[in-house]
Amino acid sequence: MTSTMKEMIKEFVERHTPKSKFELWISRIIYERGIEFFDKILLGVSLLAALSLVPAMIIRPEMTPHYVAYALLIFLGPYGFYRAYIDKITDDIERVFPDFLRDLAENRRSGMSLVESVKIQARGNYGRLTAFIQQMAASMAWGVTIFEVLDKLASKIRSKLIKRALTIIREGADSGGEFSDVLHTAARDLREILELDVQRRSQTIGYLMTMYISYAVFIFVILIILVFFLPRLGQSATVGGSLGGITIIPIDVRELSLVLYYGSIIQSIGIGLVGGLVYEGKISGSLKHMFILITMTYVIFRFVGII
Question: Which of 137, 172, 196 is the C-terminal boundary of a domain?
Fold first, then answer.
């Protein structure tokens, strides 16, 4: 069996797996309705599920520390990891989009029309972009221009990179340049931007790890205070008198522990937000980091017995 035949069989199998069929279904919905279609549904469901715990807080106020963590995790978990999945789709599409433009330029140089070229490329292997190219080919067969299908793709998946490529292609075409050369220029420009983004992530991963380490140190100090310092302070306050010349007044150790617990939750939200913005450059990338840090905080405080 030749290598070409093996590649054809492998490509056929990959396209007919449940995963590929699911991603094809997802891509069709995204191309037609956009990411907002999923955003509104999942965001609404997550928000309602989180708010459903408010009556439980009123009925059982002693369980409020648990319900606060549950509400945040219910909201951030499904929506955050959904956004991570959508962002991965967008990143995968943007990574192979320069190859699509380059191949489109080569087909144009060989004398093919844009419609014929896109139809041929729809049978190629461009990863997650392949399903969108199929939708683009079907639209162009009905007379939709390449500018319209690219603009629709960029708006539906919220890709600033594809919008930038579309601007370059439009301006190059309006200036009267050779269309294949314009496509090559756009592909080269996008590839340079992607390389810069890879370099940025490699440089900022250290900052993200530093934030996680600093948060671990913060939690460690809080636990030292809660486990060793506050119980003794509470005993001294119960006995009364003075300690080292300082008059001890009765304190509510439970209330102070909850203040530190809620402060740790707020700290995890802040670090997750900043970490996601620094590393991924978008707020949606912060949601999964906030989810991870809040989960760590709740598990640690629950394990120690603070809540």
Answer: 196
